[in-house]
Amino acid sequence: MLERIQSERTQPDRTMIEIRDVTRSYGAFKALDNASLSIREGEFFSLLGPSGCGKTTLLRMIAGFDTPTSGSIAVDGQPMDGIPANRRPTNMVFQSYAIFPHLNVEQNVAYGLRRLRLDAGEEKRRVEEALAQVSLTGLGKRRATELSGGQRQRVALARALVMRPKVLLLDEPLSALDKKLREQMQVELRRLQQAVGITFVLVTHDQYEALAMSDRIAVMFGGRIAQVASPKEIYQRPVNRQVADFLGGMNFVKAEIVEENGASLVLDTLGFGRVKTDKPKAFVRNGGNATLGIRPERLRVLWDNATAKFEVAGKVVERHYFGEITHLIVEIPGLEKPLSVTETNDFGADDIPVGTSIRLGYDPEALVAMAD
Amino acid sequence: MTAAAEGSPPLRVAGSRRSPLLQSEAAQGFALISPTFVYALILLVLPILVVIAHSFWTQNYLTIDHTFTLENYRIALTEPIYRDLLWRSLYISLTVSLLTVALAYPIAYFISFHGGRHKSLWLFLITIPFWTSYLLRVMSWKVILGYNGVLNSGLMGLGIIQEPSDALLYNSTAVIITLTHAWATFAILPIFVSLEKVDRTLVEAATDLGDGPLRSFLRVTLPLSAPGVISAALIVMIPTVGDYVTPKLVGGKDGVMIANAIQAQFGKASNWPLGAALSVTTMIIVSLMAGATVLVFRALQRLAR
């Protein structure tokens, strides 16, 4: 609950990273195509997308390991053109963690401090502080080769944080960890970011990771930024089918635009009849058709005589059991594709026999219109 | 079908009769190395034992007196001629190995970090000198360094020197130059291999933490490639101490090394026990020097943090 309140706190509006019209081409291939983005100070920002979408390229350009073919990047108001990676106010947590194997934990963390020639006491204090921040107190003398995956990741974090960067860049930092540790680290990373107040930019292909940790997310496909918004908005109001699909399951229903005005859309659909929905901000109609989407968990099974203001009727054709939830595939007369429905197992959704006729209820707010 | 059927059953019977010990991986490993091992035992260990035995005996004109004595070692260690030769050999081999490593490192670094798709082509090019005999290569250095050689005529042509210098050939410098060239490949390869193993992300991480190219090289790349540097130094150092072809051909009077003395004892002087004592002394000193080199490199590696 606390996490949630904090994540919704108002962000200061100062811009930390300004990415303007950045393109990175490799011959004819554009790894990044005219991307513009502004990341605020103190924000936990995620670049989310499938592999090859340009998210890592963008991160490496912020760090200085790659140079834009055109466009500009500024960090904290300073243009970064021509500034090498070692003189940028950013630090990076590498996907492989890149822990120096010939140094122990303490020496790894102190690596960047060495050059600053602090006095011994100050250096030691900062190293200790950084190790404490990532709960590695007491492991300073461990050899890098004797660490577990989770510990290596913490060392990489401490090594970057000890430099007190303006921006911390994280390149898929959790992808090498097992599921349980990954979930634990998501919470910890989020907590750490709030404690230190540094702008975090995370690259990930895991939508749950991005949703769980970020203040805002940029979803990328094929070198382009498709949508930048809060996790909730990205999940509930995706701008197009691609974004919707990438952020988890979504039922897509063909729709015909009946009426369009400033704030709303009236659509005619086959299974859901005529619906009126909010018009998404980025909606640009493309001909007379649109797509209506609804998340599987926003459809609920109506038991016995229960009714809902909005409902559709159909027949269960498949049932998949996932422990705490059951996945039902329900055929609706008139719809060309059956609907996916995710139902918790508290009420016995896992016992519904295939072939049963059921009714599904939904909130009209759960329906989202997307341009075709 | 029939051939396979006839062939396989006896094999399987033989396999099942083997004791578990023989089927273990260790046993298979020993079986694999045994031909080489036996070969090494007969042609390396036995001769060394014979040499060690001889070093404690005395040459008595045509016969060998088998009474135990340390006299040969006393001569080997105190006689000025042998002491000087030994020192010179150590000096030459140490200089050669340091020079070779220093010259080989940039080449190995270039191939590993900037070789791109042509790494194997570069490595292939480096082996080209080995297509000719070592003697030919030494001879070509004679042509380069000689009184009327390429280097002298070149320097005279440029007006840097007025008359040919005879300081180039027939001394220890000539031996050092020739050996450094001859052993370059043996130094490049191990350094290249260890540089290939350096994770490039580590260099990026060092850069990210504020190091410029030189610092990240000194703090990350160099210490991590130290194993290759150490083996390169040893690969060059150990054999060059005992080299006798090169000093014989380009060393002249001032370039004679301990191996030439050993050869003389086993040949013209016909004093096998003294030759044996000189060999054993050289072997021990080389081992000590190799050990010291490893320790020095390790200490240097520890400094780089």
Low-confidence stretches of chain B: 1-16
**Count of helices of chain B?**
15
Cα distance spanning the termini of chain A = 37 Å
Estimate the mean pLDDT confidence of chain A: 90
Q: What kind of oligomer do you see?
A: heterodimer
Share of residues in helices of chain B: over 70%
Strand-residue fraction of chain B?
Answer: under 5%
Query: Largest sheet of chain A, described in full?
Result: 6 strands, mixed
Mean pLDDT level of chain B: 87
Secondary structure tally: strands of chain B? 2
Largest interface: A-B, 25 and 20 residues
Describe this structure in words.
The complex is a heterodimer of chains A (372) and B (305). Chain A is 24% helix and 34% strand. With 372 residues, chain A is an alpha+beta fold. Chain A has two domains: 2-236, P-loop containing nucleotide triphosphate hydrolases (Rossmann fold), CATH 3.40.50; 256-371, OB fold (Dihydrolipoamide Acetyltransferase, E2P). In chain A, the strands form four sheets. In chain A, strands 6-7-8-3-9-10 form a six-stranded mixed beta sheet, sandwiched between helices. In chain A, strand 11 (251-260) and strand 12 form a beta hairpin. The longest helix of chain A is centred in the middle third of the chain and has 18 residues, at 179-196. Chain A is globular. The model of chain A is unreliable at 1-9 (pLDDT under 50). Chain B is mostly helical and 305 residues long. Chain B has a single domain, classed as MetI-like fold (Orthogonal Bundle). Chain B has helices at 2-17, 20-23, 25-55, 71-78, 80-114, 119-126, 134-145, 150-157, 172-196, 200-208, 213-224, 226-241, 245-251, 258-266, 272-303, and strands at residues 58-60, 63-65. A two-stranded antiparallel ribbon of chain B has the order 1-2. In chain B, a hairpin with a 2-residue loop joins strand 1 and strand 2. The termini of chain B are far apart. The relative contact order of chain B is 0.12. The A-B interface holds A 63, 65, 84-87, 90-92, 94, 96, 98, 100-103, 107, 111-112, 114-116, 159-160, 163 and B 199, 201-202, 204-212, 215-216, 219-220, 223-224, 301, 305.
